[in-house]
Amino acid sequence: MVLDAFTRNPDIKGVFSHNDEMVRGIVSALRQIGKLVPPGEDGHVAVVGLDGTPLGLDRIREGTQDASVGQDPIAMGNAILDQMIDYINGREYEPSAVTLPVLINAENVDDPAHWGNF
Question: Whole-prediction pTM value?
């Protein structure tokens, strides 16, 4: 899909992936067409993934992925577990849980609070 998109429009400035695992194909495609250019250099195509996985964070460190929108599965699990415990014990509980995403990039990739660094 990335190769097709660049064939139709070679001036694409960025690509977003639904998860960090799929960025592997984006990086491969950009490499094939000579557009895997380091950040800050002319012709760089921004690559952003989703989830903040260990693999995504490694790619950010190596410069083949610009960012990932971190979604913390540990925080999500904790919030849901707390609700389940309240429900089982007959206590009032909030029927929805909110965990906030965080943009992970080269400036904060090594933050130990990111679940992908555990």
Answer: 0.89
